[in-house]
Design a protein that fits this description.
Helices cover 86% and strands 0% of the residues. It is mainly α and 83 residues long.
Amino acid sequence: MRTFLRWLVVIIGVLLTGVLGAIFYLTWRVSKRTGKGVFSSLVDIPEEAQLLTSETKSRVSGAIKAALKTAREKAESVKNSVL
């Protein structure tokens, strides 16, 4: 039972550290972008999280489109070289 509680404390500590790290990172991004202080930027975290999510989605979709285009071109090249 004590081992379980120790593991539970470790897991909760890791999760809490991750959340605090994410909050600090978002606050730092807002502070860098707006020129505000770090503590003044805390209120802008939800907006920055949405901005980061939309940037990530657009980068991923762009990478997928480029990969599909390259795969189609290679498949066409292989098809032409075989025939």
